[in-house]
Amino acid sequence: MNKKRIAIIGGGPAGLAAAEVLSLSGHAVTVYDAMPTFGRKFLLAGKSGLNITHSENYARFATRFGAASGRLGPALDAFTPEDIRNWAAGLGTETFVGSSGRVFPTAMKASPLLRAWLGRLEKQGVTLLTRHKWVGFSDDGYVFETSEGLLTVHSDATLLALGGASWPRLGSDAAWVPRLAESGVEIAPLLPANCGFDVAWSEFLRERFAGEPVKSVTATSGAGTYPGEFVITGNGIEGSLVYAHAASLRDRLLKDGRASLMLDLAPARTAERLTRDLARQGGKTSFSNRLRKAAGIDSVKAALLRECTDEADRADAPRLAASIKALPVPLLRTRPVAEAISSAGGIRWSGIDDNYMLTALPGTFAAGEMLDWEAPTGGYLLTACLATGRAAARGIETWLRR
Fold first, then answer.
1. Which of 237, 179, 240, 232 has its CA nearest to residue 210?
2. Residue 161: exposed, middle, or buried by beta-carbon count in 10 A (0-12, 13-18, 19+)?
3. Are the CB atoms for 227 and 218 separated by under 8 Å?
C-alpha cells in the first residue's frame, strides 16, 4: 500500500488506538488535539484507579451496550477485554481483577500507561500535535485553530475521535455537532449517561446529609434490581448504584416527565419481619428509635424515610415496613451532561457504514464516544473506545486500498 496522509482529530483513547494501528501500516499519521496534552479524560479516570475493562464472561460483556451492541459486536470481538489486558502488559502495565470483576492497572494509575503509549506511537512515526483545535471545513480540508493562526490540513483519510459532551473542560465539548449536522450527518441528541439526578430535598436533609453515603441497599428501576451504594448530594443523588439505573431513569423522565428510584433500605429483612418488629415497639418510642431497634436503620436511611413518606406511613407498622422495602425517591431531572461520566447519543449508526465511515462525508471516519452508544461504568466505556478506534483504523485501511 502506498504511504498515505491520515489525520486523526482527537487524542483520546479512540484516536490513539487508531493511530497505533495505522502507523504500523506505514502511513503518515498525525494526531491533532485541542488540549495542551493528550488523554485528559483518560488521566482523570485514572485518578480513581483507571478501570480499564471488565473480566465478566465475554458473551455477557458484549451485551452491555444496549441497542448498539449489535453494531459494536465486530469491533469488540476484534479487541476483547483479554486483548486489552495483553495490550496494556505490552506497554509495561500489568493488570489485576478486582472483587467486582473490574480490571485495573496494578499501579492504579493511568499516567504510566499513557506515557508508554505515546512513546510507542512516536517510535512508530506518529506526529502528535497539541493545541490544534478543529474549527470547521474549508476547501475540502480541515481547519484548525493554533497558536500561530489558522491551519488547513488536507489528508487522504480523516478520523474524528472528538468524544461526547461530558467533562467539556477536558476537551469533549461536542462543538463538532453543528459542523457535522451542516454536512448532512444525522446526530442523535447528546444526553447525560452514568449521571446523577436532582431531587427536591428539604433544607434539613440537604444541610445535614449532603455528602453522606447510603450503603447496603438495593435499587430498582426499569433496568432491574441491583445492590450497592450511592451518595446524597446537595442537589440529589449520585454514585455507582445510581449510575447503574441512569439510562432507564433518564429515558423515563424524558418520556413521562417523572421517574423514581425504588430503594430497599433493609435488603436482608423481609417485609413480614419488619412489620412484626416495628409493631412490637411501644407507642411512646420515637420514630428514630423504632427504626433502629426494629430495622437496624438510623442516620441517613432514617432521614430518607422521613423525607419520602408521610406521617400516616410512619405511624403504621405495615405501611412503614412496605416503605422500608420499597421507598420511591422521586427525581426531578438528570444532572447536566457536562457533569456526567459519559454521554449517550451522537452520530447515528444509520449514517455510518461497516467500516466506520460517515456516508455523508466519504473518506471521513468516526470512533469512540462520538457514536450513538452508551454503556454502564465498569470498564465498558474505555473498552468500546479502544475497540472502535481500532475498527475505524481498519476501515480506513480498507478505504485507502480502494
1. 232
2. buried
3. yes
- The strands making up 259-264's β-sheet, listed across from edge to edge, are 327-331, 259-264, 213-221, 224-232, 236-238, 197-198, 333-334
Q: Which residue has the cell 444532572?
A: 335
Dihedral sign, Cα of residue 180, residue 386, residue 173, residue 258: positive
Whether 43 contacts 55, CB under 8 Å: no
Residue 35 pLDDT? 96
- The C-alpha cell that represents 24 in the structure block: 504500523
Instruction: Answer yes or no: are the C-beta atoms of 388 and 73 closer than 8 Å.
Output: no
Sign of CA dihedral 53, 56, 59, 61: negative
CB atoms within 10 A of CB 213: 12
**Calpha distance 287→54 (Å, rounded):** 43
Q: Which three cell numbers stand for residue 100?
A: 467486582
Please write the tens of the pLDDT for every residue from 295-353.
Answer: 999 999 999 999 999 999 999 999 999 999 999 999 999 999 999 999 999 999 999 99
DSSP state of 241: H
pLDDT in the model for residue 194: 96
Query: If you search the block for the grid coordinates 417523572, which residue do you land on?
Result: 258
Which cell goes with 329? Answer: 425517591
- In this structure, which amino acid lies at residue 298? D
**Under DSSP, is residue 383 helix (H, G, I), strand (E, B) or coil?**
helix
In angstroms, the Cα distances linking 264 to 192, 228, 269, 399 are: 25, 11, 10, 53
- What are the cell numbers at 10? 482527537
Q: What are residue 395's DSSP bridge partners? A: none
